[in-house]
Amino acid sequence: MAAKTFPAFPFQPSFHPLITTYAVNVPFNITSVDMEFIPADCATEISLASQTGTLNARRESFTVGIGENILTINVAKRSPTGAVPMRSYTFKLFRQDRDDVSTFDQKEVLADDNSTVTCSWMQTCDLKLYPNEPCGIQQEPAQFGSNTTFLCDTNQTERWILPCRSCSDESSCAWSKAVWSPDLCGPLPLKPVEVEQCLQNKKLVFIGDSTNRGIMAYMMQKFNGTLWEDEKIHSVKSYENLNGVNTSFTFAYYPQFWLPRPHRPSFSKTFHQALKAAGPLQNNSETVFVVGGLQFMSGIHVRELQKSLTKAKLEGAHVVIKTLGAGFFVPAHGVRHVSPDGLAKLVQVNQEIVAQSRQLGYQLVDTFAMTTSRYNEFSAGKCSCHFHSIIQNPPVSGNPKKTFSVRGRINALYSQSVLRQICSTNRN
Question: What is the C-alpha R_g of the chain?
């Protein structure tokens, strides 16, 4: 048994058939790694631990998200009575974050630093979805931290605003301080006490896929202080009396893509399953619907939501639409890949979602623009579509219960935008 990576990165320790765990450091600019597994002989079978069956080829491509990515393979020997397990190998690939390669000193006081300039970032040059718009780092006419009211012009294209030493060098920027331009013009970020006051007695219903579930997890953590479980819900579930008050979160997974098409619950059926799980709902802003996902949404779903709300006599509920998101942009083993024509179609569909939502008076968070512009900053996962991860917190002495935290700055920023949309009425 032998293993290699392409591009070639050293294993730590060096590969040996008797050593089963390895670390591999991957630079930020690498989003996928080919791994070649070479069996010891013709009777050796190699399979991924997450899948059944042997690998179709010795060399396969895998996406590598920011942070830790774990790949486990199983090795077995064929015999007349079946495959006999021999050994499992675990490869921990650690990919750098943008700030790991930045030359910007994060401890500097930006507002008082005359050498800091304001730059913007709308789209990458290797994924230029908007041909008439610039790509890469662009200069903005203001010093970072000074008057940025010019960004609030409604005719301005939404983009990331960030401090840099030079707008010609993205490695000179403080990416952890990047802000989505509409957030500079709205209310200040919510304080924990404001989140608690805003969500008190509300019932929040989330309908969508794992990207919407990431928003719910962030909001639950902000409201509850921590997460009590790392549960990847693929059905319908409610969380009652959060933070000891009468606030509930309900999540309904849609679409259930793993089922044969004839057996997948429709959007309207999923909506009513969520209503049943959430319990009695008021026809006012105490009821909040957050609807959206990666790439299933269209203008049809927005109209279907309106019909379902009307039928349930919940037209007065507060609705926030999450638009599409970046995902499946990186070719990898066992997952689909969005073609150039598919990318153009996603841009068109997202524009339809935005138009329909505004026409119906729904509030909107454009996660498509936020994530496609930074699509290569995804977290671990073969879909390259998640901008969050949930990790277990260190144990607390005297408390045996496990707790978890949500990580991921881009997910945090668009989740904060959802929170601001929900709480804007209260603050005004």
Answer: 23
